[in-house]
Design brief:
GO molecular function: DNA binding
CATH class of the largest domain: Mainly Alpha
Oligomer: single chain
Radius of gyration: 19 Å
Helix content: 55-70%
Number of helices: 9
Distance between the termini: 54 Å
Protein name: Nucleoid occlusion factor SlmA
CATH topology of the largest domain: Tetracycline Repressor, domain 2
InterPro entries: Homeodomain-like_sf (IPR009057), HTH-type_Tx_Regulator (IPR050624), HTH_TetR (IPR001647), Tet_transcr_reg_TetR-rel_C_sf (IPR036271), TetR/AcrR_C (IPR049149)
Keywords: DNA-binding
Pfam family, one: TetR_C_39
CATH superfamily of the largest domain: Tetracycline Repressor, domain 2
Number of domains: 2
């Protein structure tokens, strides 16, 4: 393991111990057993280290999602549902999620959302393209459509940005399901799986 990886794993460990907010670059260096100068060789600041941790966490999570759908001989709609199912199984540790949602870390939080979108959108775009080839979808711009599709989930439904009731979340997902079903000319009910874990409340 090289020093850059050691620094990232050390910061990750401190975040899991809920020490991310209070630790300094010196603390990270001490915990990692390396000189402070070595950290500044790889990273300009503590925030930059955290950016690298977020990238590592989400890349690992999304790589597992891609592996899961690549190993299945199923159509595009089934792959899209499986992608959401698998993604939901890999929960980010509460201490890291809490750090992301602190007001002073808003910029880092936004970067993490952009990271998710950048990593996931090519996978969703490939699924949309497969759906076109399977005559399930009609889509002239799969990458851009995937980005718009994921933006709603990454930003509109992020609890650190908006506070919605369960009913409001359900209605937004219901609207998105209808919007993308019609926008992709998908068979009726194709995107109902997005609503399945939310109950409509009076």
């Amino acid at each position: 393991m090289n020093k850059r990886e050691i620094i990232i794993k050390t910061m990750y460990k401190l975040l899991l111990e809920d020490k991310g907010a209070s630790c300094s670059v010196s603390d990270i260096a001490k915990e990692a057993g390396i000189g402070k100068g070595s950290i500044y060789y790889y990273f300009k600041s503590k925030d930059e280290i955290f950016d690298a941790v977020v990238e590592h966490i989400y890349k690992e999570k999304i790589d597992k999602c891609k592996e899961a759908i690549d190993n299945k001989q199923i159509n595009a709609l089934e792959k899209l549902k499986l992608l959401f199912d698998v993604y939901g199984q890999y929960i980010i540790e509460p201490s890291i999620d809490s750090y992301l949602h602190k007001q002073q870390n808003a910029a880092i939080h936004q970067k993490s959302l952009a990271q998710i979108l950048n990593l996931l959108s090519p996978i969703v775009a490939d699924i949309f393209s497969e759906g076109v080839n399977e005559n399930l979808f009609s889509c002239e711009n799969p990458q851009e459509t995937a980005e718009l599709f994921l933006s709603a989930f990454c930003f509109l439904l992020d609890p650190g940005i908006f506070v919605w009731s369960d009913y409001q979340v359900f209605k937004k997902i219901e609207a998105m399901s209808d919007l993308f079903e019609k926008g992709l000319s998908a068979p009726k009910g194709s995107f109902i799986f997005l609503c399945e874990k939310f109950k409509e409340q009076p």
